[in-house]
Amino acid sequence: MTKFPKNFLWGGALAANQVEGAYLEDGKGLTVADVLPDGIWGPIVYPPQGEYLKHNAVDFYHRYKEDIALLAEMGFKCLRTSIAWARIFPNGDEETPNKAGLQFYDDFFNELAKYNIEPLITLSHYEMPMHLVEEYGGWTNRKVIAFFERFAQTVFDRYKDKVKYWLTFNEINILLHAPFIGGGIRPDKVEITNQLLYQAIHHQFVASASAVKICHDMIPNAQIGCMVAGIPLYPLTTDPNDVLEVMKKDRETFFFSDVQARGYYPSYMNRFFKENNITIEMEDGDEEILKNTVDFISFSYYMSGCATANEELNLQSKANILSTVKNPHLPSSEWGWQIDSKGLRYTLNTLYDRYQKPLFIVENGLGAADSINEEGEVIDDYRIDYLNDHLYQVREALEDGVEVLGYTSWGCIDLVSQSTGEIKKRYGFIYVDRHDDLTGTFKRTKKKSFFWYKNVIETNGESLKNK
Asked: Which sites are catalytic (predicted)?
C-alpha cells in the first residue's frame, strides 16, 4: 500500500468566527456570523440582542497559545484557520487597516512558527463585515471586489514571510444555498433570484482570481487554492433519469471549481443560464482576470447523498443538507449526516481526474454530543472509527495515484457549529468546557481521539486500520 508522503500536511481546521470569540474586541467590526444566534438556517438578528455563543465562542482569541501547544503535542504539521476580515477592516470599506487586528494575527503566526506548524489561511470564511451587507448589499455589489482586493493585498503584504498556503473563499458554492452567510445577501431584504445569486457568484469569482494574481505577484513562493463543499452524489436508482439528475446536480458544484481551476466559464452553464433567463454582467477584463487559476483545490467532505428525478422524493428531502436524498445503504450521524468514508476516495479521484491539480482535504470530521465521564475522560471511539475509516480511504486514493497535499480535520478544538449555532455538536480532539446555555469554564480536556490522532501523525498514517 502506498504510504502517505513524507511532507504530508497533517493537521486540523478552525474558522475565526467559530473559535475566537472577542467579537467586538480590539476594534473588530460586526460580521454576518455575529448576527446568527441559531446558525446559518436561523433568523438574522441585526443588531445583535444579548449574547450568542459565537460572541465568546471558545475564547481562542485569548487562549490560542495554550491551544497551539496542545496541537503541537499532537504533532500538527499544519493548522487551517481564517483571518477575520472585520478584525483587519472593521467595516470592510476603510482605506487603512486596524492595527490591533493585524498585530493579533502576527502574534498568532509567530506562535505557530515556534512549533513549526504551517498556517493554511482562508481569506473569507463566512465572516463578511456587516457594514458591507447593509451599505452595499454584500456580493451583489461589484464595489465589494475592490474592498476584498484591498483586504487580500493587506494581509499578503503583512504575512508574506509567515504564511505560504492560502485559500480564497470557504465553500464558495454554499452561496447558492445560504446566500447570507456565503454572500452577505439578506433574504429578508431582497428577493433571492437566480439572476441575483449568479451575479454575486461572478463577483466572487473575479475577486478570487484577483486575489490569486495578487498572491502570486507578492508571494511568489506561496500556493493559493480554492475551496468547495464536496458532497458526492449517487443515482438513487439505475433509472437513466436519476443518472442525468446526478450529472445536473454535480455540475452545480463543478461550476465553482471549473471556473477557479480552469479559468473560464464551462460550456454547460450556457444552457443553464439560457433556460433560467440569467445574464451575467461582465466588465472588460473580467475574462482575463479569471485566467488566474488556483494552484490547488481544497474541499470539505462530511457526507454523500443521492439524487433522483422523482419529484415527490425531492420534495421530501428539502429539510436535508443541500436537499440531498438519503442513501438507504449508509448510516447517519446524530445530526442526520450520512457517513460514507468511501465517498471521500471517490471525491478525491473525481476531482483529480477532472483537474490534475493537487488536492487538499481541509475539512472532515464527525459532529457528536461528547460527554465527560466520572474519571474526567472523553471516550470518543465513534470519532476515532469515523476518522480512521476516512483516512484509510485517503490512503487508497494515494494508491490510485491522486496527489494529496494534506488533511486538516474539522474542528480540532471544539467550536460553535456553523449550521446550528450550538456547541453540543462537537468535532474536536480537545473538549472545551463550554455549553449552549453560555455556561462553562473554557477548560480544555484531551479526548481519547487526541492520543489516537497523535499516533496517526507519528506513524505518518501507518497506524490506520482497514475495517
From this structure: 363 (nucleophile)
| 366-392 mean pLDDT | 97
Q: Which domains does the chain have, with CATH numbers?
A: 9-458 (3.20.20.80)
Helix or strand or coil: residue 317? helix
In this structure, the strands spanning 78-82 and 118-124 are parallel
Residue 302: name the closest of 411, 432, 197 by CA.
Answer: 411
Q: Which residues participate in catalysis according to the annotation?
A: 363
| Phi and psi, residue 111, nearest 5° | -65, -40
pTM to 2 decimals? 0.98
Measured CA distances, 50 to 11, 34, 41, 53, 160 (Å): 35, 11, 19, 10, 38
Tens digit of each residue's pLDDT (9 = 90 or more) over 176-188:
999 999 999 999 9
Q: Residue 131 belongs to what H/E stretch?
A: helix 130-136
* Residue 142 φ/ψ, nearest 5 degrees: -60, -25
- With residue 122 as reference, give the H or E element that holds it: strand 118-124
Q: Which residues contact 315 (CB under 8 A, 6 or more apart)?
A: none
pLDDT digits (tens, 9 = 90+) for 338-373: 999 999 999 999 999 999 999 999 999 999 999 999
User: Cell 458591507, residue?
Assistant: 132
Kindly state the DSSP code that residue 50 receives in the 8-state scheme.
S
Please identify which residue in the block is written with the cell numbers 498585530.
103
